[in-house]
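Re-run requested by the PI after the first attempt was lost when the workstation crashed. Everything re-entered from the original request form. Ligand of interest: adenosine-5'-triphosphate.
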Amino acid sequence: MLLEVRNIHVAYGDAPAVWDATLDIEAGQIVAVVGPNGAGKSTLINAIAGILRPAKGEIRIDGTDIARIAGHRVCDHGIAIVPEGRRLFGHMSVLENLELGGHRPGARAAREEALAEVFELFPILGERRHQIAGSMSGGQQQMVAIGRALMARPRLLLMDEPSLGLSPAVVDDMFRIIRMINERGVAVLLVEQNINKALEVAHHAYVIEQGNIVTSGQPGALLNNPRIREAYLGI
Ligand code: ATP
């Protein structure tokens, strides 16, 4: 198992946001965490990324517990995040934003190679490498955010609502990109409100409600679950 999250609790001060969450990601899988607004999806993914520290529980990558290591060391274990809302440096160029992602010691040596891979995946970023990131379209900015995470050459890419605020055609592109990244051997944890799209690409999915993982399974089974259909698909 690549990632094993075991019974984690994450709180903001006294307010619990994720409660007793357990999930697994196998190497090379796309795993989706779906659920409504405020369910705890960002909290969960930020805890895995080392941005938030769980009060209890374990987060193991290849068997090593990283739940309590310094946040900036999590990327050394092959985990990178594309945060909600992209968080680019809008006044800096595409290239400068991408170079900020190449922090891992191993990644630094291979920075040129990683950059070439990102430009192969997103040719538009190569063409526009000197453009100011904030002047690009929403979809292109999302590509910069994904490219920046890939510069660290992760084994596990965490993506928080990659389709948020994008037009339907660009959302389709984004999910195609997620598949392409996964086909290159990178496992993906995808947090999404767009349950239909997320379940289309995922190999396995978890449903989170009010801080609890309430069910999980194969996407096909979840799509046939009457409660899921009623609550999320309006069927
Ligand atoms: P969204 O899609 O809106 O981002 P989400 O499923 O990602 O929703 P979280 O952002 O993880 O949900 O929020 C889970 C709970 O934690 C919510 O009740 C939210 O109000 C609360 N919360 C989130 N961030 C903070 C914070 N910085 N301080 C206090 N409470 C927070």
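Saved to the shared folder this time. Residues 3 and 61 are 5 Å apart (CA to CA).
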